[in-house]
Design a protein that fits this description.
single chain; alpha/beta; six-stranded mixed β-sheet; about 40% helix; 6 strands; about 280 residues; 11 helices; elongated
């Protein structure tokens, strides 16, 4: 399966970000804690150069806690300010205000020396589709100030949001880059739902997920789906999942598509367990 998706509105979104980057002091980038590198758009590094940078490990409740710690250390060593958050229940939100002030302390001090007092920090919120930007902003602001949805591409235009006297946020549509040079990145983005499911083959995606689960989280396959033999090929494991969960077509014929959709939904919702698909230690290999 070839993973590509670059609708026309994303070209427009990137152009809009390029036009507005000069207005902001801080670039707040949301990444998915389950795929912290794959869910970063390399264009944002270029767009955000010469600006203070913060990374939010969003959906951290769905990711492996030990891996979350390792990824935070990884990004801090790269010079980013990092906060672990869960936008849905508000975990980590209180830490963000403090970290924003720390990230922009030079700017705040520079304003003070010039006699500019109480000008709010202006931050641009960026990230790829479906990484949770709108949910984060609503949670952070404490009210539904942006439209949210569980499909990529809900945010279509820019919005300035005044959170308090010290911080204003510029929300932007999610953007993907035009071409995945590494198809592995496309696979990981497809697994977490950042590429529209309508253009994907769910059975193939489920088989790829099974390969990862066998390697890093075999206990979850055993616990949730009663898989006795993990040496089996991924297709045989999907067959067992279909059997255990009674995914049938007419008669006794197994419904692999239904089993694949069930497995993907269990993974994305966290029902299988806390899973991280990328590991920082693998970068040293």
């Amino acid at each position: 399966m070839n993973y590509q998706w670059y609708p026309g509105h994303m070209t427009k979104a990137k152009r809009m970000m390029e036009e507005n980057i000069k207005l902001i002091d801080l670039c707040i980038e949301l990444v998915d804690a389950r795929t912290p590198l794959a869910s970063r758009n390399p264009d944002i590094d270029e767009l955000g150069k010469n600006k203070s940078r913060m990374i939010l490990l969003n959906k951290s409740d769905l990711a492996d806690p030990e891996c979350n710690k390792k990824w935070m250390d990884y990004f801090k060593k790269k010079g980013y300010y990092v906060v672990e958050v869960n936008s849905r229940n508000g975990v980590g939100m209180k830490e963000i205000n403090k970290t924003v002030q720390e990230a922009c302390k030079e700017k705040i001090e520079r304003d003070r020396r010039r006699g500019i007092i109480n000008r709010p920090v202006r931050a641009m919120v960026v990230g790829i589709p479906n990484v949770g930007k709108s949910t984060f902003i609503n949670s952070f602001a404490g009210k539904a100030c942006t439209k949210t949805g569980n499909k990529p591409g809900v945010t279509k235009g820019k919005q300035w949001i005044r959170l308090n006297k010290s911080l204003e946020l510029l929300d932007t549509p999610g953007i993907l880059w035009p071409k995945f040079e590494d198809q592995r990145i496309g696979l990981l983005l497809a697994l977490i739902g950042s590429i529209n499911d309508d253009v994907l083959q769910m059975e193939e995606l489920a088989l790829e997920l099974i390969v990862i689960l066998k390697q890093f989280y075999p206990q979850f396959l055993i616990q949730r789906y009663e898989i006795a033999d993990l040496e089996k090929e991924p297709l045989e494991i999907l067959k067992e999942i279909a059997t255990v969960r009674k995914c049938f077509l007419k008669g006794e014929e197994l419904d692999y598509r239904k089993a694949a959709a069930l497995l993907m939904d269990d993974f994305r919702s966290g029902r299988i367990g806390k899973i991280t698909l990328e590991r920082p230690e693998a970068l040293d290999e």
